[in-house]
Amino acid sequence: METAYWILAGLLAVFHLYAGGKKTTQSKERLAPMMGWVDTVPMPAVRAIGAVEILGAAGLLLPPLTGVAPVLALVAALGFLVLQVLATALHLSRGEAKVTGLNIALIALAAVTAWLATTW
User: Fold this and answer.
1) Spatial separation of the C-alpha atoms in residues 59 and 49, rounded to whole Å
2) What is the pLDDT of residues 10-58, one digit of tens each?
3) Using 50, 70 and 90 to split pLDDT, how confident is the model at 120?
4) How far apart are CA 35 and CA 41, in angstroms?
């Protein structure tokens, strides 16, 4: 179970580090082709979402690695679950049901990671 956690948490962390890094560093014009929703969301909110993703990735990995407050890994995984549920809702509200496949996969990945974080 511990190995499964590290594999899934690593995948989730890498994805959110990449996405969060892009959101915190790139302009709205550079993000828009990949993330059409940035046109309707204020840029400070996009930057905040990116920062949350980066902090969440650290929360998945650092507490279990250091043994300091490992419950934060569960909190981070649940946070990613909520984030992706909200992202799916945003896409659906914009009529973008076709692009929710990745969000649904990330919801499943975050849910399993959260469950695995409780088993050890």
Assistant:
1) 15
2) 999 999 999 999 999 999 999 999 998 999 899 999 999 999 999 999 9
3) low
4) 11
d(CA 47, CA 66): 28
- Helical ranges in the chain per DSSP H: 2-25, 28-31, 43-66, 71-93, 101-119
The whole-angstrom distance between residue 100's C-alpha and the CA centroid of its chain comes to 14
Residue linked to tokens 């560093």: 25
d(CA 97, CA 117): 30
N-to-C CA span, the chain: 7
Q: How far apart are CA 48 and CA 45, in angstroms?
A: 5
